[in-house]
Amino acid sequence: MNRLGNIATLLALAGLAAAGPAFGQTFSSDKADFRLDTVAEGLEHPWSLAFLPDGSQLVTEREGRLRRIENGELQDKPIAGVPELVVSGQGGLLDVILHPDFENNRTLFLSYAHKISRDGLTTRVARATLDGDRLSEVEVIFEALPRGNTSRHFAGRMEFDRDGNLYVAVGDRGEMDRAQATDDDAGGVHRLTVDGAPAPGNPFVDDPSVNDTFFTYGNRNIQGMTIHPQTGDIWSHEHGPRGGDEINIIRAGNNYGWPDVTYGIDYSGVPITSKTTMEGVTDPLHYWDPSIAPSGMAFYTGDEFPEWRGDLFVGALKMQKLVRLSIENGTVREEEDLLEDLGERIRDVRMGPDGALWLLTDADNGKVYRIVPAE
Question: How much is the pLDDT for 114?
């Protein structure tokens, strides 16, 4: 390379360094050094990420678009055919998850906020077929009822268990008492078949006072859900008010207590309850006070970071960081804060098929990152 070529290369590298962590800055944790690489940027409040069998990725934008990343490039044209939705407050296009047999049936599921002017807003789930660059056979399979008039706490996170049942989180919609009303779909986790029917063996199917799709209740606003790689249990975390963000293992029929028990207080500073535990309520596995505003979660199961294998990673919106939790026998043994210098709200955390951890940042210019070994 001639002298001019060397100068151009140095200038290019200097430009990348000046751009900060988005271009491969190295970070350190207690167990491993890692690099943060940018896969895509220019997304408007990305919310969820899914990995397609062909190596590409799907990303939801809360503003109502489903985008594809192909060969490391964000495609300009969104996927067509996304169901009708409303973008209001915390609501919009939320989670995307692939059918367990997606490679053969091309079926995926979307959660989103929906509005009917006379009845208000709610959380919906639709099933669709991905046909090239569009969705076809779009069908609403779940709608949380009754609707409400707030634009908060839609939840919307989803996960499949090993039996192929779909778990759907619905928030309390900012009306806390709804989380204890089991004839009201708000404030709990619903377990469905892929057709939207109550899953076989649901805990309340023989109780006429509880909606048949309920799996748990007393949940405030679940923003992360994942399956444990060994046990197959579904884990979740949810926002508390001021304090009291929780990690829970989702057990059939359990009441997680909101708002009768909480480690948090109202945003006004007024106590919500004096109780942090009570009979008949499931205590959290872990909680944060003050709140970190958790969003997205994944167990690390790859080979790129053997030091992290089995650890749980949780994104944080308010505190703008990634939290690593080492868990042993149902107890958090170690907690480490990562990426605090990044200065970005972490919306989603996913375990990639490439062995890397993938992150989404919640911003007008949202990004998709990969965490890879520093070397």
Answer: 98
